[in-house]
Specification:
about 500 residues; 6-stranded mixed beta sheet; homodimer; alpha+beta; 5-stranded antiparallel beta sheet
Chain lengths: ~500, ~500
Amino acid sequence: MLERIDNILQHKCLVDSDKSILLGFSGGPDSLALMDIMHSLGYPLIAAHLDHGLRPESESDARAAAELAASRDIACILGKTDAQSYASDHAMSIEEAARSLRYGFLFRQARELGVHAVAVGHTANDQVETLIMHLLRGSGLSGLSGMRFRNVPNPWSQDIPLIRPILGIWRREIEAYIKDRGLLPLQDRTNLDTRYFRNRIRHELIPYLEGYNPGISPIIWRMADIMDVDDRFLQQSTHAAWEDCLVKVGPGYISWQADSLRRQHLALQRRILRRGIAWLRPGIRDLDYLTTVRGVEFINNPTLDRQVDLASGLRLFLEGGVLFLAGYEADLPLNEWPQIRKKATLRFETQDEVSLDSGWIIIARPVESVSSVRLVVQSNDDPYQAWIDVSAIEGPLTVRARRPGDRFKPLGLGGHSLKLSEFMINEKLPRRARDKWPLVCRVSLPEESGGGKNPDEIVWIPGSRLAHTYRIKDSTRKAAHLHLSHQE
Amino acid sequence: MLERIDNILQHKCLVDSDKSILLGFSGGPDSLALMDIMHSLGYPLIAAHLDHGLRPESESDARAAAELAASRDIACILGKTDAQSYASDHAMSIEEAARSLRYGFLFRQARELGVHAVAVGHTANDQVETLIMHLLRGSGLSGLSGMRFRNVPNPWSQDIPLIRPILGIWRREIEAYIKDRGLLPLQDRTNLDTRYFRNRIRHELIPYLEGYNPGISPIIWRMADIMDVDDRFLQQSTHAAWEDCLVKVGPGYISWQADSLRRQHLALQRRILRRGIAWLRPGIRDLDYLTTVRGVEFINNPTLDRQVDLASGLRLFLEGGVLFLAGYEADLPLNEWPQIRKKATLRFETQDEVSLDSGWIIIARPVESVSSVRLVVQSNDDPYQAWIDVSAIEGPLTVRARRPGDRFKPLGLGGHSLKLSEFMINEKLPRRARDKWPLVCRVSLPEESGGGKNPDEIVWIPGSRLAHTYRIKDSTRKAAHLHLSHQE
């Protein structure tokens, strides 16, 4: 047994035998056996015992644990907490609360002492029980891969590994070792109490399952190992795919290239989405299966309105080729599109420019010879540029955001007039960028406007479409060139 | 319900509503509901019923099933078999035998009729039961991914899909549908008999687990879906990695580039090895976990003797950079190395050659000016070429295979003499190629051999090393060039 565990410490836990290790030490059979074994193997240990304050005798247990350590010349750090009130304060089960407090305590001590690793005494039986708990509660691969011999980073530390040297040792082997060595562990009465879910699994469910297959425990242990290895590969692949697809992790949102995401395997799409949700909503513990299914369905076959609500105030939506996962609190980027805050004037008789938000700029300049640009104009399919007929325009253009009642006669519809809002929807201009999208307008002459609400007319929607009326015609004698661009 | 199933038929089973589908039809509630639903949706059906001969009333059941189909104007093909004797002949459980016979029958009929797909009436409950069975028997990801809505290729056909349109429908929904529509299914008494493992799971284990979590069935169903998607990704990745590493699939063996295999993730290494074992030993159903672990351990850290026994007469061994998985029956390739069957003579005063097996050839020719080749000789690190001092050699060289008692004085050991077998081991010449490895020898003069067993001396081991004695020295006046090469 000593040799087996030394081997595991070196090759699975990857620890050095000459650096200190902090041992989570209840004084029970598992952690006592682990202490005895690691001490015999010459690993320098410091013990740490947390009194959860759950039983009247817990204080005397703490003292007894310290004595067990002291009899081997091992220092034992004692801590005390109140798991009961922590549980009620945080709406957790007592077991969850105790676990959270215990690991918090161990890793706080580990950091202060500068140890190499934190060791805990989970056995192969604990592994099997954990797996069955996850199975009963419902979980995918990561839940079924259970605990690891070495886990770093872990929820409590980025760099101090949590190690489990006896994760491959069965409880009956520990018991035999205890007997053999004449060790006297403390007995934790909660182990015999079926009040807790884990204890029901240990004392009722597993013996019941053994009626179906007496070898069920090793079968489940091996399954965990297979799952763990598969899960690590999937995590690695997910990480690479995430990097491939990511546009940005911003405040309250994450965006990906929709095309790249669609090219990924469904398994990776699901994991990328789950990872995104977990990033934005770290509180979610068991993400609903149907949420993931719905989200991935949207990624591959977006709905017509190009958005879908997920869970916890998160939604997915598409803007152009970019997929956003965002919470209601997200500070979404707007600098991908031209946006204007304040009405501006744009001349065209000489070169002139209007600066918009975030480095966007519109430049106007007169066209010297209309005939020389006719060919370029005809083949122009760049929405960032327009050549306009200014023959009938007196005075400067204005650039402004939209107003209620705005209408537009897009080039290509033969002069038909649409509600501007309708045009913007058709053209899929991003919803949240519509209110401040710059519109290049001409001020209408009094006799043209007819005293209506909008005494001007949209000439060009930069980045989108020219107005039918202001296209270059055979009769055009005077023209201007408008250019929208973005300086990083 | 009709709409849901039509949706699944189109998007998950991927079948057309105007092509014939063969329906496996027991006449029980599940297959009767499926028949009724698909018929209502307008899918053209042909039913097929196999009488397993397991119960006295099975013949009348077959007639009753045919009548149920006929009342909907659906043709029903009847087959009869003896599952009991098939089971004992093939050392299978009755359930396994019945299943194997049933799918064999269905796909035989499907091929003859040229149908589009074979449909069977597995429900969501069947899926959960299957998963639990796999879990109890021990299986990795592929076992836990259960059955699929559409499976092609499957064990019975490369191109006809096996579809399960009601795999997402719970048995209670089927029962409600049956009642609603006033259908009268046949009752299969074996369903109520806990003799069979599956029935124990259905009637005892699942209700017991529901005591721990009433929602356990949907949880397990969802887990299967997650596992299935993950498993498909892993299969795809394994396929790509297999192609990357493969050298050859030969008779009774498979070989891979050891380096490429080592670069793969452990999850893929395990799957590649399992796939190789399954290819060579298709009979193995539940490959032992420890066999895979041992094999992969060898791949990453080969033992000194460079081979390890696996299961079922298979072993792994390394030859140079190539890893072989081979059975005792393997016809391993030898043409990678020079091999000689019959002693030959090689002159060097004029150009001469010896043909070996499989396109290998040794060419000898005299060196015209020793001084002009000294530089080339000094920097030669090509074991396929040698320049030898022939000053002291009279008459032709011989080329032969090794003999007991052979010794060799390799260049670089200052004239020290080694057993040839020892040298070959040190140099890692492949074990099975050693016996016929060609050796270029000089025939010793009677006064040199001293009447010993081997009246000749090894001058050059082609592909490996020159003898110390025959190196080009300052004093060398007469030399020959030897060249080993391989014509494809």
